[in-house]
Input
Amino acid sequence: AQKITQTQPGMFVQEKEAVTLDCTYDTSDPSYGLFWYKQPSSGEMIFLIYQGSYDQQNATEGRYSLNFQKARKSANLVISASQLGDSAMYFCAMREEQGGKLIFGQGTELSVKP
Amino acid sequence: EPEVTQTPSHQVTQMGQEVILRCVPISNHLYFYWYRQILGQKVEFLVSFYNNEISEKSEIFDDQFSVERPDGSNFTLKIRSTKLEDSAMYFCASSESRQGAEKLFFGSGTQLSVL
Output
C-alpha cells in the first residue's frame, strides 16, 4: 500500500537559515514521482518541486532542493535562506506510475522567525 | 501559466442541503481529481475522473457524492445531502496524464461550511 509520512508536525527556523523538512514514503512500484507542495494560510496548493524515482540527480528549484535517498525511501525538502514568506504548511506527496492519484503526507507547518 | 479555477471560493449551507462545487480544469488536461482537506488535517483523495467516468474513488466518496463533466470545460462535485462533517476545503486538480512524473495542478479551493 502507498504511504507518505511526515514526522514533523511543526518546525521553526530563523530567517536566512536553511531548514530540512522530512518525508519518507513506502511503495512497491519501482516507478513513481515525489512532489512537494506549499500551502500558505490563504489555502491554495502551490507546487514547489518534483523528483522522479529514476532521476539520478537531486531536484533543485531556486531555493528549494530535494534530498532524495532512494534506498532509505526518503525525499526531504531543503529550503535554503529562509524568508518570512516561507511560513506555511508543506506537504510531501507521491504519485505512482500509472497510478493516477496523488497521495499526501500529514504536512509540516513551518514558521520562519525574523 | 494556465490555472485551474474553482467557484465559489466559499460556500455556506444548511445540513441536509445539496451543494455543487464547480471547477474549470486546464483546457488540454484529461485527468481530473477532487480532494478534501478538513481543517488542520492532511489532503485526502476523493475521486479521479477520466474519459467521462470515474477511474478511482476513495472510501470517503460514498453515495452522497457524485461528479460530472457536464460540458467540455466544467467539472463538478455534488454532495446530495450535506452533513456537518462535510465541512472542509475542497480542491479540484487536473493533469495531462496519469503518469507518475506528471504534476497535478490544483485550484484555489472551495471552503465549504455546513451549519
Q: What stands out?
A: The two ends of chain A are 41 Å apart (CA to CA). The mean pLDDT of chain A is 92. Residues 39 and 45 of chain A are 5 Å apart (CA to CA).
